[in-house]
Amino acid sequence: MIIERKHTREISIGNVKIGNNNPIAIQSMTNTDTRDVESTVSQINALSKAGCDIIRCAVLDMEAAKALKGIKDKIDIPLVADIHFDYRLAIAAVENGADKIRINPGNIGGKDRIEAVVNECKKRNIPIRVGVNSGSLEKDIIEKYGSVTAEGLVESALDKVKMIEDAGYDNLVISIKSSNVLMCADAYNIVSDKTDYPLHVGITEAGTINAGNIKSSIGLSLILSKGIGDTIRVSLTDDPIEEINSARLILKTLGLRKGGIEVVSCPTCGRTQIDLIGLAKQVENLAKDYTDLDLKLAVMGCVVNGPGEAKEADLGIAGGIGEGLLIKHGEIIKKVLESELLGCLKAELDKLANK
Questions:
Q1: Which among 240, 284, 229, 282 is positioned nearest to 262, based on CA atoms?
Q2: What is the CB neighbour count within 10 angstroms for residue 110?
């Protein structure tokens, strides 16, 4: 099945274009102190190497806003400034090189303050991401719908969009976040029918790496499989690198992104005579270094059934009873000692990467 993307208008975030069927961009957010330029730059560059396309930094005060200039000079991916409450921080962030700002017009101040932010963005054609979160939905909307609902989230988001439009600007991205997976998916279904603005999608407060990956995978699959979404973030209570790894795999699994190795492995069973769990984890870590390869790699724990089970993979390994097999499309091409199996696989991947 090929997912047909819904049409949205194209906008530019620095050197990355989103919307209008451009590739879905992967985002993350730094967890460093933005005022610490060195550590923030170091984290951003590591995230970029892992496959992050757009990075967001929290701007808590004026020192952080001014630090964006030094950060921008040392990174290669677009920088988004995350602003709450103080409109002056949004203006300063734009002045110091932010490629996009994320605000909630509802907490940024009155009409004059919103217009001041919009005017600064308009000078440089900087996009504004209008973000609405279920945890901060307005009381009057909650009362209208009786609780936090998908319809209420969409109404709140479009109200905020209108505030920006009324100030004479439409270079916008919309995000609607909820930790309730089904509500979040419903909200994106509704809003995608009401607007052609690009949509940033994700499940907020998804949790730690295990729970967060499950909730994000389910939620993002429900949304992305309907062609909705122009940028994504997998929100995890963990190292932001894990967000990138998960986002890449979700997009690749849905056929929405190419590149990178997809590792598949069999479950353990009574026939397994190798440390399959340890081997699969080693292979998964190894595969992260080959982001330019686009292939499926199988890790099998049985030398009897391994070749057949791995026939749909481009490359595979299987091990047991002290020996290991290197397999291509189900055909055994090399037999080695079990202790040499990982090194043999790396050599084959290096060969493919250097073609």
A1: 284
A2: 8
